[in-house]
Amino acid sequence: MASLTVLSKSDKETIELGRMLGQHLQEGDILGLAGELGSGKTCLTKGIGQGLGLGPGEVITSPSFTLVNEYQGRHRFFHMDVYRLEHVSEFLGAGLEEYFYEPAVLVLEWADKWLEILPDHRIMIELLILDHTRRKITLTGEHPRAEEVIGSLKEGLGLPNSWTES
Question: Contact, 4 vs 139, CB < 8 A?
């Protein structure tokens, strides 16, 4: 299993981490985000969009009411938020699992609600609030593709070891 933990000291750093991550993503990659309200899931997603080449005028917002927003950058990019869904049957009944098999990058907020239905090749990202500005962000994955993405990000960060944990 690959793992990387990064300490972000601001929204700007969280967006930058997302941007760097987005540069390593390709069609079929699935990112599952977990963390309480206000932990930075949408900030990270904004950065991922930038890394996927979305234009500077493209505004990424959480699709809390629409469930899915679609963007076009270097790859198609779906941003899904399932906070308002309470049962896996609602997720499946809405046909949202079909997005798992689209030729696109998928970012799923609140992915920890239904880990059992997520594909094995996902990368899980947990965002933990440390205080009003700092976040502990941990990426994990067991699939070879997830390990490749996390390994590439780890190499690309170039941060001192005191900033990251393996």
Answer: yes
